[in-house]
Amino acid sequence: IQSLKGVHFVSTDQLSKEELQGLLDLSKYYKETYKAKGGLKPKPLEGDSMAMIFQKRSTRTRVSTETGIAMMGGHALFLGPSDIQLGVNESMRDTALVLSRFNSIILARVYSHNDIAELAKYATVPVINALSDLHHPLQSLADLMTLQEHFGKDLSGKTVAWVGDGNNVLHDLALGSAILGMNVNIATPAGFECNPTILAKVKELAAKHGGKVMTTSVAADAVANADVVVTDTWVSMGQEAEYAARLKAFDGYQVNKELMSKANPNAVFLHCLPRHPEEVADEVFYSPQSLVFDEAENRMWTVMAVAAAQLGKVE
Ligand code: CP
Ligand code: NVA
Question: What pLDDT, in 10s, does the model give residues 3-25?
């Protein structure tokens, strides 16, 4: 993953299979090393700092990054919507240019993906996309790490089924799964399909790496024989005004015991969190099949790997 030094981390499809696996291997190494009792812990980011721009709320991304960077000897600064001049008094371009003079990396959670593109265009240090309306690449790394922990490193031929909104989290999970040779089944209600350009990319990557892609509006068809069932909120941040209409549109898409029973008997459940009971019932969310809290933990080990790779400080 030497090739990621100085590179912006914007979406999962920018990674080659080797780079993706390299990040997952490094994440695993960090998890083992930092969790081990005793021993000297590496501090590869000593003297480095990360500016974290958050235009939306966050529990996992904020806490995992702040904690992970500190663990590696670096310093992360949380910059919420009312902490800095951005958006009110200052442009993304100027913010990028100024933060680049202080910090080694700029991480940003934004509404429009164009803001990430703008940041990446003008920043002179590596940028990390911490969620935009189109992509959530940090999440897909944690998801794939969790699946490799559970099923072993070779995920090729396994089927991941998405049930719900065709959103940012789906986009990167589908791209990453395709890169690792998995089959991708996607069930979304009419009008809530995933981005067509990204779907075309998923199909292209699947064809290259030996997987298949299917889309449907029937949840049970996507889940049939799946090894992994995944969903996310039906109402992403910024869509709060559509809450009632979305609840109606997604009727029948809840992941519950009955839907899980159509998947392989050994199937697991993933959800990036935060979670609402409408998209997944407690009987699945808190079941032994559910890997959601490993998945949440792995957000930390994976963002540490991304930062170290971008700074060329991989031990
Ligand atoms: N999964 C995730 O990104 O969670 P947060 O919104 O809490 O960061
Ligand atoms: N799809 C959700 C993910 C939150 C981590 C959102 O964009 O709000």
Answer: 999 999 999 999 999 999 999 99
Return the sign of the alpha-carbon dihedral for residues 153, 156, 159, 162: positive
* Amino acid identity at 214: M
Which atom of ligand 2 is the closest one to the Cα of 133?
7
Helix, strand, coil in percent for the chain, rounding step 5: 45, 15, 40
Q: Domains in the chain, ordered, with CATH?
A: 2-135+299-310 (3.40.50.1370), 139-295 (3.40.50.1370)
Structural contact between residues 7 and 169, judged by C-beta atoms closer than 8 angstroms:
no
Using only C-alpha atoms, what is the Rg of the chain?
19
- Identify the pLDDT of residue 315: 67
CA 62 to ligand 1: nearest atom: 8
**Integer Cα distance of 187 and 189 in angstroms:** 7
What is d(CA 186, CA 176) in angstroms, rounded to the nearest whole number? 14
Catalytic residues, which ones?
272
* Rounded distance from Cα 61 to ligand 1 centre (Å): 5
Phi/psi at 231 (5° precision): -145, 180
Query: Within its chain, how far is the Cα of 155 from the centroid?
Result: 18
Mean pLDDT of the region 225-248: 97
Neighbours of 85 (CB within 10 A): 11
Q: Is 236 in the pocket of ligand 2 (CB under 6 A)?
A: yes
Structure ipTM? 0.99
39 or 206: which leads in pLDDT: 206
Query: Mind listing the pLDDT tens digit for each residue in 162-195?
Result: 999 999 999 999 999 999 999 999 999 999 999 9
Residue 101 C-alpha to ligand 2 middle, in angstroms? 30
Q: Which atom of ligand 1 is nearest to the CA of 273?
A: 1
Answer yes or no: is pLDDT of 40 > 90. no
Q: How many residues are listed for the chain in this entry?
A: 315
> Which ligand does the CA of 271 lie closest to?
1
Once rounded to an integer, what is the mean pLDDT over residues 133-138? 98
The residue whose CA has the least distance to atom 1 of ligand 1 is: 272
CA–CA gap between residue 127 and residue 150 (Å, rounded): 30
